[in-house]
Amino acid sequence: GQQVMQIPQYQHVQEGEDFTTYCNSSTTLSNIQWYKQRPGGHPVFLIQLVKSGEVKKQKRLTFQFGEAKKNSSLHITATQTTDVGTYFCAGRNTDKLIFGTGTRLQVFP
Amino acid sequence: DAGITQSPRHKVTETGTPVTLRCHQTENHRYMYWYRQDPGHGLRLIHYSYGVKDTDKGEVSDGYSVSRSKTEDFLLTLESATSSQTSVYFCAISESTSLLNYGYTFGSGTRLTVV
Known about the structure:
Chain A is an all-beta fold. Chain A is built from no helices and 11 strands. In chain A, the strands form 2 sheets. In chain A, strands 2, 4, 5, 9, 10 and 11 form a 6-stranded mixed β-sheet that branches. In chain A, strands 1-3-8-7-6 form a 5-stranded antiparallel β-sheet, with no helix packed on it. In chain A, β6 and β7 form a beta hairpin. The termini of chain A are far apart. Chain B is mainly β. Chain B contains no helices and 11 strands. Chain B has strands at 4-7, 10-13, 19-25, 31-38, 42-51, 54-57, 64-70, 73-78, 87-94, 105-106, 110-114. The radius of gyration of chain B is 13 Å and the shape is globular. The relative contact order of chain B is 0.33. Chain A binds chain B through residues 1, 6, 30-31, 33, 35, 41-48, 88, 90, 92, 95-102, and chain B through 1, 35, 40-45, 48, 50, 58-59, 90, 92, 98, 101-109.
């Protein structure tokens, strides 16, 4: 079945450093979504990418969809303590989203 | 998020007992989903619904059943709870159609412990 892998599993950074998480699918995706889950909270939708090679920005967050539509990345510039949480990608190739295993980000002040 | 609630928020139950979790939405979204979240596994789809009385299995459906008799309610039943079903359960809703996909809105989750 379809699998979506994310790396790294954990990332600890000093506040102000950059952070990147990578998402890879075993199959071609029709679109990919990104979610953030704060500790003790529930996943919250951030963005959806649909087009091959698409790049979208939300303030300090940059999202990219690969040319082959099998991988994606989320880059955070100059992390802040409010960025703490787990970031999930979720890929769709039929009528279901398959979530990646997530990257837990810890930011030290 | 407003528009989706899960109940109960926490539950402890004994092995072998049936358990029902409820998801209620006020958004009139067509799609509803049940996920479980476990360390190292992320979010795994249990069952989903694409309309009243229309449901389908996800990747980890064994030991679970669902029902959707009204647009607003999606029930998840553990027929005979086992310790491996100790998890955090999230319900999600979406207004996606076959042509357009939108982000999911998740409920606050139910923490279930099977002892």
